[in-house]
Amino acid sequence: MTPTATLLGLCYLVAAVLFILCLRGLSSPESARRGLLLGEIGMLIAVVGTLLHKDIIRYDWILAGLVLGSGIGIAISAWIPMTKMPERIAFSHAFGGLATALVGVAEYTREAEHLAYFKVGALGFETFLGFLTFTGSLMAYGKLQGVISGAPVTWKGQNFLNIGLFFGSLCAIGLLVVHREMHQVFFAIAGTGLALGVMAVLPIGGADMPVVISLLNSYAGLAACATGFALGSQILIISGALDGSSGLLLSLLMSKAMNRSFANVLFGAFGTALEPGQAATQQSKSYNEATVEDAGAVLKASQSVIFVPGYGMAVSQAQHAVRDLAASLERRGIDVKYAIHPVAGRMPGHMNVLLAEANVPYDKLFDLDDINDDFARTDAVIVVGANDVVNPAAKKDPSSPIYGMPVFNVEQSRSVIVLKRSMNPGFSGVENELFFLPNTMMVLGDAKKTLLAMIAELKEGH
Amino acid sequence: MSLEWMFNLYVFVLATFVGYQVISRVPPLLHTPLMSGTNAISGISLVASLLAAGSHHSLSQILGFVAVTCATINVVGGFLITDRMLRMFRKPPAARGEGAPDAKVKAGRSS
């Protein structure tokens, strides 16, 4: 080993340790920022070390890419609102996937003929996963952003085709290991990865986005791992493994929070539209439409209030209004808590970040298991744009598509105030009987405007 | 399978194990920062992109340039945005300071 190579190896080792410490720091909010700083230092060491690598013979393209990438990265992170975080994450998975895929293509075209058999296989796998992550994340981004319909798009034989494409690609990678000079096979694998990313995310509905985003996170990590195997770089293998296991763990947690298997999320096309007959019965049921004054009266008479935020809070950017309403309730001596479901919103931890942005102290935020017994002792629950996570059908109705999913027992509280845009079932299409219960008040309209009106209402009457 | 491959496999399996152990300790509160943090770390593919962009092969340079740009966006953007998020998670007593003028009153009543 040359001295430079030894130095580089040590740099990578230090970086790997710092990355693990970075993730270790995330086990509590107090240590998280310090941990992140260690991660940043690790990355800096790894990048600076790599610039000393003997195979790097020119720096112009590198410098251009670093400057351009930093500029875009700084701009995005400075201007993106917190409510757009799921979109940002999906978009960055797309960048990560594209980067690894392009590295795979570059490596293959540069030295396919000189590579060991297994390395060619790793390159094929890397390129396949990278492109799959790229288009899959772009699709997820499109669905989140509303460019593509958030509803699941399904057709006959879809799962069959997707599974066929996946195993076809694995076979093609096998073929490439034997015939590494077959460029057309390599590019067919790349093309299949691109196509499969689109096809695999199309049938998945908006409400399942937390699982999809976590899974794409895992794929991006695995692609980085494959790069590590192809280049013989341990730092890539370690970082990719950390990313991959994080994504895998999150997607398992998310699936569990919906009581659905992985396979069901990926192939189930959850949230298909209701049959016309079913939709009609829903329309005819009666519900209590309440005004802001009615809701205000209930709140004034309450001693304890729990907020249950959902994706609707993110859509109407109502997190600050929620915080302000909580503040006026607390000023009246009312006890306020927040119930956060693992799959509320469009990505893991979505609601926590939004409420943190609105300055809600995190000891007020409670997980499903910690708060579910409190609803029976609570005077009023305010549901802000949440739907499936408060649907009692998950507990009672075996025919419901969400049956078995752990949900909040909001209906056990004395009164439930639901803030909702309209009585449309939304694209998830699952009927929510909570809205039709006698102790539920429906306050229809934009959540933020309703909340602001409620704050004004609480200020007026004493 | 060569010795190097077996060695890399060991690294992969052990790193996955460590990752799983460390990450299962992250509370749901911090799942979004976790995701955006690991996203920044997976920007380590920048290292491989640098090698491609700095090589002598012209197609590789161009692909490498795009890859360096994408990976740098993830590294720089990922760390900055994660830090921006983590800054928002404040300790309960610290919440008194800004934007929560009522916290003192509430704390007084509940105790």
Distance between the termini of chain B: 66 Å
* Uncertain residue segments of chain B: 94-111
Q: Which protein chains are joined by the largest interface, and how many residues does each one contribute?
A: A-B, 121 and 93 residues
Whole-number count of domains of chain A: 3
Radius of gyration of chain B: 22 Å
Q: Give helix % range of chain B.
A: over 70%
Order of H and E elements of chain B: HHHHH
Number of helices of chain B: 5
Beta-strand proportion of chain B = under 5%
The chain-level structural class of chain B is: mainly alpha
Helix content of chain A: 55-70%
**Shape, per Cα inertia axes of chain A:** elongated
Proportion of beta-strand residues of chain A: 5-15%
Mean of all residue-level pLDDT scores of chain B: 82
Largest sheet of chain A: 6 strands, parallel
Rounded Rg of chain A: 25 Å
Record field, number of beta strands of chain B: 0
Description:
The complex is a heterodimer of chains A (462) and B (111). With 462 residues, chain A is of the alpha/beta class. Chain A folds into 3 domains: 1-79; 90-272, no CATH class; 285-460, Rossmann fold (3-Layer(aba) Sandwich), CATH 3.40.50.1220. Chain A has helices at 3-25, 29-51, 60-79, 85-111, 117-145, 158-178, 183-201, 209-231, 234-257, 262-267, 276-284, 292-300, 311-315, 319-331, 350-357, 368-371, 393-396, 447-460; strands at 304-309, 335-340, 365-367, 380-384, 415-420, 440-444. In chain A, strands 3-2-1-4-5-6 form a 6-stranded parallel sheet. In chain A, helix 4 (85-111) runs antiparallel to helix 5, helix 5 (117-145) runs antiparallel to helix 8 (209-231) and helix 12 crosses helix 18. The longest helix of chain A is centred in the first third of the chain and has 29 residues, at 117-145. Chain A starts with a helix and ends with a helix. Chain B is mainly alpha-helical and 111 residues long. Chain B is built from 5 helices and no strands. Chain B has helices at residues 3-23, 31-41, 45-53, 58-88, 103-110. In chain B, helix 2 (31-41) packs antiparallel against helix 4 (58-88). Chain B is flat and about 55 Å long. The relative contact order of chain B is 0.09. Mean pLDDT of chain B is 82; it is low at 94-111. Classes of the chains: A alpha/beta (462), B mainly alpha (111). Chains A and B meet through helix 1, helix 2, helix 3, helix 4 and helix 8 of A and helix 1, helix 2, helix 3, helix 4 and helix 5 of B.
